[in-house]
UniProtKB/TrEMBL annotation, chains A, B:
GO terms for cellular component: cytoplasm. This is phosphoserine phosphatase. One of its GO terms (molecular function) is L-phosphoserine phosphatase activity. It catalyses: O-phospho-D-serine + H2O = D-serine + phosphate; O-phospho-L-serine + H2O = L-serine + phosphate. It comes from Vibrio casei. Its EC number is 3.1.3.3. Keywords: Amino-acid biosynthesis, Hydrolase, Magnesium, Metal-binding, Serine biosynthesis, Signal. It comes from the Bacteria. GO terms for biological process: L-serine biosynthetic process.
Length: 329, 329
């Protein structure tokens, strides 16, 4: 065998191996082989192929994800509320008045129905008492400590294991294809920044959410950012595209949500001059997760479903499209 | 000569070449060989060397730059004001009442002194009339069109050539060493995003500034973000560290400014748990640029200078430290 023939055979072998690798490494192994998965993969392949008419330059590959109900579960209530309740309990000894004052009295008894009775006003009181009056550093530390030990009330798993495995795969698939992935959530931005970077592989500066007002103070000679008991931005509904424009200054080409609170973000994304992908998670799996839409206390989904049809969004049917929901234990 | 000796000589030759290359490519050619330049280079070399005690992980290499007076000039007045005046002139035919109404009447005559007489309130009126009432897309297009043709009133150069060549080099040097460079300016965020990405090699999402309120609207069936005539964030002084925390969620390790408006940003940066670098540009060069500090209408610099000494900031003396100020024509 001459040298040329050896080299040719080696080249063919290397190229075949490469081709097989490309076809057999499934980027979304927890997704069933449905039209949804095929559509996502086709979108990514086309928009990242420089020879395709659908090509999107790297600088414009912005993908925005809602968090609650989209990246992790949100039942029985938003997980951030459990943090608030646990903080209230931890601070109770310094607040004897909470024993008789609502919503604190119900919160201390772990009575969520009682808390609900004090309505949105009561909820805001709980959040303010547990989320403000400290520096951002202190708040960050308290969330980090809590998320290590807190457990989901029905599955008893850490909240960071209540993330959707198919979504983790989608995030990584997009990241590997040079999409810049952002969280654009109604959840508190500093609450998420304390744990989400490790869980989702998304840096703090790509996590956007609701926020409280802050103030720059010199405390004991040390510059400090204090969290004030006043909402600055409620990052829901029409605020989501506004937050995206303010923080990123670019229109996303991919947006992923699960509720009417994400409607405007998905609608805005579909007006991109580039090919765009709007994904709407529909919670249809009462067995492995929860089944809910328009009658739910969280993740209310009513207006966005008919719009999804009209505006060519892709509805992710959790039961049909996902072979696995949560990460394996 | 045996093979080993040839290989050894070749290796030595390659290594020497590498060493020479490392030492002779000056990353900051427009900086004089002063302690300022040496300090910057030493800082970057140490903090990017994994074997150094001063090493900073890539994810924490956040560098924030003021814009007006730090990256580009700000005399005789902030350049964004010339944009406002030109927009007012362009819109005058639709506003016959401006002929007699201040500050518009003075603006239309190009009488800056007259504009000044109507104070901050007048200035805000000019900015609102020229910067709001349109979509972000329309505003972006009008800034892009203006910056192509507008000229500085005394140097007659395009405003994008009124940038400081040494600062462009510093930005690129930091970017090449995996520092994430941000603009954190009192200037309008959407005004800067229309031209700064090309000029500074900083993507839109790393440009933070002052902003007006916005509103999500469906205009003729098309989702649109409209700019409203109300200031949302005045990104100056203590607001700068708050904006950094809100947008980035990390404390910078490098901050660069030129006025008392940057004091808190530099002070905040110096509290980093990593080695930090605070740079304060002092405009000392009446010949090549302008010489000003505490008596100036822009870039007021008074409190920050003594703090720079006390808090180990590096003062950049424009006349002493820069061999070239603006890019060559």
């Amino acid at each position: 065998m001459n040298l040329l023939r050896i080299l040719t055979l080696a080249t063919v072998a290397i190229m075949s191996h490469h081709a097989i690798a490309n076809n057999t490494i499934d980027p979304l192994p927890s997704w069933n082989d449905t039209a949804t998965k095929k559509g996502i993969i086709q979108y990514v392949q086309q928009t990242t192929n420089p020879d395709s008419m659908q090509f999107i330059p790297v600088s414009e590959r912005i993908a925005t994800f809602d968090n609650d109900g989209t990246l992790w579960a949100e039942k029985p209530v938003y997980f951030q509320l459990y943090f608030a309740l646990d903080q209230i309990k931890a601070q109770a000894s310094q607040h004897p008045e909470w024993k008789t004052e609502e919503p604190f009295a119900s919160a201390l008894k772990g009575d969520l129905e009682g808390v609900k009775k004090s309505g949105m006003e009561g909820l805001v009181k709980l959040v303010m008492a547990s989320h403000t009056g400290m520096s951002t550093e202190q708040f960050n530390a308290s969330v980090k400590a809590w998320i290590k030990t807190a457990r989901h009330p029905t599955t008893h798993r850490p909240f960071t294991e209540m993330v959707y495995q198919p979504m983790i795969e989608l995030l990584h698939y997009l990241q590997d294809n040079n999409f810049k992935t952002y969280i654009v959530s109604g959840g508190g931005v500093e609450f998420m920044r304390a744990w989400a970077p490790e869980v989702y592989r998304i840096p703090k500066e790509q996590i956007l959410g609701s926020s409280v007002k802050t103030q720059y103070e010199i405390v004991n000679g040390k510059p400090t950012i204090m969290r004030l008991p006043e909402i600055s931005v409620n990052n829901d509904k029409a605020q989501k595209p506004l937050t995206i424009q303010t923080y990123i200054g670019k229109k996303p080409v991919i947006a992923v949500g699960n509720s009417d609170g994400d409607l405007e973000m998905l609608q805005w994304t579909k007006t991109s001059s580039y090919p765009s992908l709007a994904l709407l998670v529909h919670h249809t799996d009462a067995e492995r997760e929860w089944a809910y839409d328009k009658d739910s206390n969280v993740g209310h989904l009513e207006k966005a479903l008919p719009l999804a049809k009209k505006d060519s969004w892709t509805v992710i049917d959790m039961k049909q499209d996902w072979s696995q929901v949560f990460p394996k234990k």
